[in-house]
Every structure is written in C-alpha cells, then in structure tokens.
Amino acid sequence: GQQLNQSPQSMFIQEGEDVSMNCTSSSIFNTWLWYKQDPGEGPVLLIALYKAGELTSNGRLTAQFGITRKDSFLNISASIPSDVGIYFCAGRTTTDSWGKLQFGAGTQVVVTP
Amino acid sequence: SAVISQKPSRDICQRGTSLTIQCQVDSQVTMMFWYRQQPGQSLTLIATANQGSEATYESGFVIDKFPISRPNLTFSTLTVSNMSPEDSSIYLCSVEPGQGANEQFFGPGTRLTVL
Fold first, then answer.
1. pLDDT (tens digit, 9 = 90+) per residue, B70-108?
2. Cβ atoms of residues A88 and A7 within 8 Å
3. pLDDT for A18-69, tens place per residue?
4. Kind and range of the H or E element at B37?
5. Taking CB atoms and an 8 Å cutoff, what residues of chain A touch B44?
6. Cis geometry, peptide bond prior to residue A8 (ω within 30 degrees of 0)
7. Which residues in chain B are contacts of A41 at CB distance < 8 A?
8. Chain-centroid distance, C-alpha B95
C-alpha cells in the first residue's frame, strides 16, 4: 500500500508567494521524483533526486532529497498563475521491485492574482 | 525524455463492454507501466508490461480484468474488460527509458467513463 505522506493537501496562495510541500515516509527511499499534473493531462516530471542531501533546481522549482532518505521537499519560488495544478511526489524504496513507484496523494496548488 | 502517445484520449462506454487502450513511445524503452487514476485521487500502479512475456500485476489487479500486451519495446496495450461504472478513471501509460537514470515519464492518459 501507499507509504508516502504528502502535505499539505491543498494550498491557496497569492501570485508572487513561495510554495513549499513535502513528502515523508517511514521507509528509506533511493529515488524521489516530483511531478506536476494539469487538468486532463498526464503527470509531467519536474525534478528527479537520487542521493541523500541532493538539492536540485529547475527554474523556480527546487527540490531536496532529505538527509535521512525518508523525506523530500519541493519549493516553488515567486509563484505565477501557470503554477496552478496538482503536484505529486513519487519514490522508490530500496526494496521496491525495479521500476515500481509509490505516489503521494498530491498537493493541489491554487494561485490567485 | 520519451514522447508517449495514447489512444483513445477519452471514451464513453457501456457497462459490460471492453475497451483497449494503446500506448506508443517514440523510442525503445526498457520498462512500460500502466496506472489507474480514479477521480480526484493519486496514481495506482496496475501492472508492469513485460516485453515478450506476461505482465506483472499489482495486488488487486488481475489479468482477466486488465489483459496487457507488449509485443515490442515501443508499444503496449491495456484492455479494460467487462466494464462497470467503477472502472471510470484515467488510465495512464508510463515508461522508463532505462539508460541508467530511474526517471519515469507519463503519457497524456485515457479518460474512460462507463455508463
């Protein structure tokens, strides 16, 4: 079953504000992936993380692989209207079979002008 | 990354019928997967589509209900059989190209409504 706890469930923010969300687990992960899904579309990969402590940026997005290997964070700086969507964390534990990903429940981001 | 297409993009089907969804990738990939996303929910893995052998199903999903084919390294199909309204979901194909990085890319999804 799902082992990832993603929070917050939803966020209502004003344009220009920063956004933070995270995923935690009781299991040790060796891969963390962050996706964004727009309505009617498939998830789009934003950032991939492979090492504990790794900090990776993609434009205004920054994600970190937690040092304990049990959590990950995604930050969006200076939000804009097109940041609206659902953000999913996904990860693979050391015991998951090759390719299998576990998904968080998602964080819905709403940006108001 | 890989470019993934799915057909159909959406369909409305009658109870008791079956629908086959196609997934095509623009390059050869090692791993292909099928997910289900029920309304307002996260993604749930249905099965791993294995090239040249039977798919590997996750707990709660069976071959009789969700038969899968993968005849080559760029194509797979998922059939949703004997449909009921509870099968109304988005069905997503994903791939891992397999060249070292464990990145998984998703297709646009097939939105299925069963009446």
1. 999 999 999 999 999 999 999 999 998 876 667 899 999
2. no
3. 999 999 999 999 999 999 999 989 999 999 999 999 999 999 999 999 999 9
4. strand B31-37
5. 103
6. yes
7. 108-109
8. 10
Q: Which of A6, A45, A56 to mutate to test the interface with B (most CBs of B within 10 A)?
A: A45
Determine whether B61 is exposed, middle or buried from the number of CB atoms within 10 Å of its CB (0-12, 13-18, 19+).
middle
Nearest residue to A107 via CA among A24, A1, A16, A15 = A24
Distance between CA atoms of B41 and B89, rounded to whole angstroms? 10
Interface membership of B57 toward A (CB under 8 Å): no
Q: Report CB contact under 8 Å: A42, B108.
A: yes
A92, A100, A105: residue with CB nearest B42: A105
CA distance A105 to chain B (A): 5
Chain A positions in Cβ-Cβ contact with residue B23 (cut-off 8 Å): none
Beta bridge partners of B56: B48
Q: Which residues in chain A have Cβ-Cβ distances shorter than 8 Å to B49?
A: none
Q: Are strands B110-114 and B4-7 parallel, antiparallel or unpaired?
A: unpaired
Per-residue DSSP letters for chain A?
Answer: ----EEE-SEEEEETT--EEEEEE-SS-EEEEEEEEE-TTS--EEEEEE-STT-EEEETTEEEEE-TTSSEEEEEE-S--GGG-EEEEEEEEETTSPTT--EE---EEEEEE-
